[in-house]
Amino acid sequence: MGASSSATRPRAAKRAAGLGLGGALLLALLAGCSVEDVGSKFGHFGWPGPGVSLQAHKMYDLWIASVIAALIVGVGVWGLIFWCVIRYRKRGEDLPVQTRFNMPMEVLYTVTPVLIVAVLFYYTAIVQTDVDKLSKNPDQIVQITAFKWNWEFDYRDGMGTDAKTVTSTIGSSDVIPILVLPVGEKIRFEETSRDVIHSFWVPELLFKRDVMPGDVRNVFEVTLDKEGRYVGRCAELCGTYHAFMNFELVATSSAKFDQFLAAKKAGQSTQDALTAIGENPYATTTQPFDTRRGTHSWNQGAETAAAGK
C-alpha cells in the first residue's frame, strides 16, 4: 500500500505542475500589456469598449481586470476538476479510501473566495466613488430636460435651480438635438423631466442616468477625452416614440466649444453655430423619427447624412 501511494505521488505532482503551468501561460500571455491592450485583443470581453471619458476608462479597466481574474480562477478550477476526474477515476470494484475531512483544503476553499470577493469589492467601491464624484467647481454646467419624445439642453451659468440659462438647444421631430461639449473639461449634468421617467444614455460614456420628473434631479459629471460624434438615446421605455428619442453628442476642442457658445449667445441657431466651427450642422449618427402622420419634411442635412452612411 505504501509503495502504491509513493508511486502515485510523482504523477500527482506532475499534474499539479501542469495546472501551475497553465496559469503561468495565461499570466505570460497577459504580461506586458496594458488593460486596454488586453481588452482589445479579446474583443473587450463583452464590454462595449474603452469609452470616451475618464470615468468610462475607469469602469473599463475594472471590467477587464475582473474578467482576467475570473479567467485565472477558472483555469485553476477547471484544471482541478479534470485532474480529479482522471486521478480518481474508477479502477476496479474496490471502494477508494474514504476521507472524512481535509483541514488545509477546507481552509483554502473558504479563505480564497472571501479574499477574491473582498478585493473585487474594494476596487469596485473605489471606481464607483470616482465615477459618481462631483467637483466643487465644474467647468461647464448643462441642464438636461427630457420630454415626450425629445431633448432640451440648457447651458447654465451656475449650479442648481437658481442658475440662469445662457443658451439652449431644443430638438424636434424634424431636427435631432445636438449637444456640443468640450474635451478635457469637467462637465456637470443636471437632469429633469417634464412628464415621465426618461433616461440619458450615450453608449460611449459606458453608463446612463435616469431623468426623473418633479423635484428629483440626477446630477453627475463626466470629463470627455476624445473628440467625435456619438449617438445618445433614451434608455427608459417612455411611450410611443421612445425608440426614436435620440440626440447626438459632439465632443470638440475647448476653443471650438467657446466659439460655438459665443455664436449661440449672439442669437445664431445651433446649426449655424456648428457651421461656424466647421462641424456638420445636422446629426450624422442618427436621424429624425417618422411620426407616421403622412408626408413630412426632413431637414436636408439629415437626409444627406443618412444617405452618406
TrEMBL record:
GO terms, biological process: ATP synthesis coupled electron transport
Database matches in InterPro entries: CcO_II, CcO_II-like_C, Copper_CuA, Cupredoxin, Cyt_c_oxidase_su2, Cyt_c_oxidase_su2_TM_dom, Cyt_c_oxidase_su2_TM_sf
GO molecular function: copper ion binding; cytochrome-c oxidase activity; oxidoreductase activity
One Pfam family it belongs to: COX2
Cell compartments where the protein resides: Cell membrane; Membrane
Topology in the lipid bilayer: Multi-pass membrane protein
Reactions mediated catalytically: 4 Fe(II)-[cytochrome c] + O2 + 8 H(+)(in) = 4 Fe(III)-[cytochrome c] + 2 H2O + 4 H(+)(out)
EC class name: translocase
Cofactor(s) of this protein: Cu cation
Ranges annotated as spanning the membrane: 62-86, 107-126
Gene Ontology terms: cellular component: plasma membrane
Keywords: Copper, Electron transport, Membrane, Metal-binding, Respiratory chain, Translocase, Transmembrane, Transmembrane helix, Transport
Region (Disordered): 277-309
Gene3D superfamilies xrefs: 1.10.287.90, Cupredoxins - blue copper proteins (2.60.40.420)
Cofactor note: Binds a copper A center.
Domain Cytochrome oxidase subunit II copper A binding: 137-263
NCBIfam families per record: CoxB
Entry similarity comment: Belongs to the cytochrome c oxidase subunit 2 family.
Described function: Subunits I and II form the functional core of the enzyme complex. Electrons originating in cytochrome c are transferred via heme a and Cu(A) to the binuclear center formed by heme a3 and Cu(B).
Protein name: Cytochrome c oxidase subunit 2
Species, as recorded: Actinoplanes siamensis
Gene: coxB
